[in-house]
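re the bet — no i am not wrong, look at it urself. input seq straight from the record:
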Amino acid sequence: MPLAELLNNYLPFIFISARVSGLFLLAPVFSAAVIPTRVKAVLVIAISILLQFGLKVGGVVEDSNIEMMLIYAMREFLTGLGMGMIVAMTFHSLGLAGAILAPQMGFSMSEMVDPQNQTSASVLSNFFYLLALAFFIAIDGHVLLIKGLAESYRLLPLGEWTLSDGFVEFIMKSAAGMFVIAFTISLPMLAVVLFVNAGMSMMARAVPQMNIFVVGFIVMIGAGLVSTALFLPYYSGYLTHHLMDAMEQMLWLLKTL
């Protein structure tokens, strides 16, 4: 088989696998540490074959220079990595909201292992992260990720990649939006905890004989949990909107390249 034909048959598969691998490295569900590495590898190969031969994704390799091939593969990997990062930021914003609330509600000392990221996180951070994961699966986000991956080859074909200032700026804006989402979610509960804390402070001034710190710890936890339960139903539409928006931003990111 001539070298040119060999390159045109196998190199597009390698480039497609690089983009899929980058996406799966950070994308929710697919990047979960509980999924064995072998399963992830099989998924990457299966989806890459489907994209190349099922959707006819590919192209003609004009430059067989090994250095250029490595650069093309790295570009595709960074493309998938950026797509996965955009969606992952929305999830981490939920974990950040839990990290903001935990010290105020008295959960700063209660930490557990996050099975998704294999890190230590507060109970509230894990709760909000798993909540976002449940919403993500409920709206078929894992299916939309695969559809977005297929659509990405129409917006940015193989090899047509140029890093621009707009790419970095888009990532920075998405990171800033992560903090906005986190504070928006945690703000109502923070307000309730603040008012409860202020009320207990006035009680401590009015009745110095009462050991308010013994009672206050339980009251703060109770107020935080009750306020979380009360405000949680109102977050369903908010979370769904931002998760769907993250899927759209994943494709808008490709237009900056």
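see?? Residues 3-256 form one domain. told u. also The chain has one domain: 3-256. so pay up
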